[in-house]
Design goal:
Rossmann fold; Biosynthetic Threonine Deaminase, domain 3; 21% strand; 6-stranded mixed β-sheet; alpha/beta; 506 residues
């Protein structure tokens, strides 16, 4: 295909019957932090909350009356499906869409609400694609490819056209997410002809790198499996047309991980109050990695915020991992001598640092192990502080098992935890609040269990096991009364007795 032919396709693309020209939104907070001018191309503001409506409609509006009468079939993890369904409703034709069973419920429900007929099949986009091809042949319907079609690619290319029209000033680079490659091919296909000095940089999630591997190999590479966190880009095999264009026109492909993606979602929310889906935030994550790696400053960068179709229940995970992705939280396992006073001495090491998580359970033997999260950008400095205090430590910040599972499993029964009382406390959350709380605890009783997690709320919640002999119970009650914080006695809690209380009772 000649370059001028693709340019003509973009300039004549029929997208604005259903799509809108989205704004190029300044990101002042991220710009300040990165020392560059950062702009978001807000494709999350489309009616279907992603850019996919552009390519889908541009393909379908050019179908003949006979083709529309037969209807269209598509395969999609969700965003293309919504684009096809909306285009079909606008054009008055039937749309049958195969989606993987792993597609977020939010996207499946949205397709049905737009009038699309949904068939759930397989675990990935590739599984859905195979069935869609079969249905195309059986029912004589027109297949609307999510990325490997020149009309679809040209529809996505209108994003590049809008960016250059909206900003005539210099742009260092435009960052775009890559799944199958339609968005990257479309944007690069236009930008490189009109303003070739602008770099177009693709971004892939580390669990879905089909395009990056294909470009590196110089041929199409099919993955055995893909991760589903960034479901919108979870593609095992990219298209022949998109591969050819990306290989020729895209300057670089950056790979980002889950933590970096979660941090990018938070960055976008801070500047726009919009919650992007993981695939929608990949470009921002790649932009940040690029600037950190090159050290460039004083330039202008554009990231295409490509979608915002995320299930609400995923937000908990995103919030959990965003601070680590921003390299503002570090997670450690610290070994303490199992004797009275060690816990308090460890808390002094933490000092005024903001603690994000604290898990401790009295252990058998000479040593105890604490799982702790700390707001810090200098992990080496934190390890040094532990070492200087005589505590061995293990940096778990990059350990997926620890971040995903171990933090929730620290604890269990302890036969040493005799005379243990379990109390739940609540106090105002602020920097240093945990240290202030610990300073109020009387030194006469040994802490046998401790759990604290900062969830960004206005109140902090702590669970503490304290060993108090029967003769000290009256003094302990007076201590509680003078503490000044809300508290609840959970010693008789059935779940505590089942999972944590000393075997054989207290």
């Amino acid at each position: 295909m000649a370059d001028n032919d693709f340019l003509r396709r973009v300039l004549t693309a029929r997208v604005y019957d259903v799509a809108v020209e989205t704004p190029l939104h300044p990101a002042p907070d991220l710009s300040r932090r990165l020392g560059n001018e950062i702009l978001f191309k807000r494709e999350d503001l489309q009616k279907v909350f992603s850019f996919k409506i552009r390519g889908a409609y541009n393909k379908m509006v050019q179908l003949s009356a006979v083709e529309r009468e037969r209807g269209v079939v598509a395969s999609s993890a969700g965003n293309h499906a919504q684009g096809v369904a909306m285009a079909a409703r606008h054009l008055g034709c039937r749309a049958l869409i195969v989606m993987p069973t792993t597609a977020p419920a939010l996207k499946v429900d949205a397709v049905r609400a737009l009038g699309g007929e949904v068939v759930l099949h397989g675990d990935s986009y590739s599984d859905a694609f195979a069935l869609a091809e079969q249905l195309e042949a059986e029912r004589q319907m027109t297949f609307v490819h999510p990325f490997d079609d020149l009309d679809v690619i040209a529809g996505q290319g209108t994003i590049g056209m809008e960016i250059l029209r909206q900003r005539s000033a210099p742009i260092e680079a435009i960052f775009v997410a890559i799944g199958g490659g339609g968005l990257a091919a479309g944007v690069a296909g236009y930008v490189k002809q009109v303003r070739p000095e602008i770099a177009v940089i693709g971004v892939q999630h580390s669990e879905s790198t089909a395009m990056a591997q294909s470009v590196a190999a110089g041929r199409l590479v099919e993955l055995d499996s893909v991760g589903l966190f960034s479901d919108g880009t979870a593609v095992k095999l990219v298209g022949e047309k998109t591969f050819a264009m990306v290989h020729e026109l895209v300057d670089e492909i950056i790979v980002v991980d889950t933590d970096e993606t979660c941090a990018a979602i938070k960055d976008a929310f801070t500047d726009t109050r919009s919650l992007l889906e993981p695939a929608g935030a990949l470009a921002i994550a790649g932009l940040k990695q690029h600037i950190a790696g090159t050290g460039v400053s004083g330039r202008a960068f554009v990231a295409v915020a490509s979608g915002a179709n995320m299930n609400f229940d995923r937000l908990r995970f995103v919030a959990e991992r965003a601070e680590i992705g921003e390299r503002r939280e570090a997670v450690f396992a610290v070994t303490l001598p199992e004797r009275p006073g060690s816990f308090r001495r460890f808390c002094k090491v933490l000092g005024a640092r903001n603690v994000t998580e604290f898990n401790y359970r009295m252990a058998e033997g000479a040593d105890a192990h604490v799982f702790v999260g700390v707001n810090t950008s200098d992990r080496a400095e934190m390890v040094g502080a532990f070492t200087d205090a005589g505590f061995a430590s293990l940096d778990l910040t990059d350990d997926e098992f620890s971040k995903a599972h171990l933090r929730h499993l620290v604890g269990g029964r302890s036969d040493q935890a005799s005379d243990e009382l379990l109390y739940r406390f609540e106090f105002p959350e602020r920097p240093g609040a945990l240290t202030d709380f610990l300073a109020r605890l009387a030194p006469d009783w040994n802490i046998s269990l401790f759990h604290y997690r900062n969830h960004g709320a206005d109140t902090a919640r702590v669970v503490i096991g304290i060993q108090v002999s029967e003769g000290d119970l009256a003094d302990f009650d007076r201590f509680l009364a003078g503490l000044g914080y809300r508290y609840w006695n959970e010693t008789d809690n059935a779940a505590y007795r089942l999972f944590l209380a000393r075997a054989g009772g207290l």
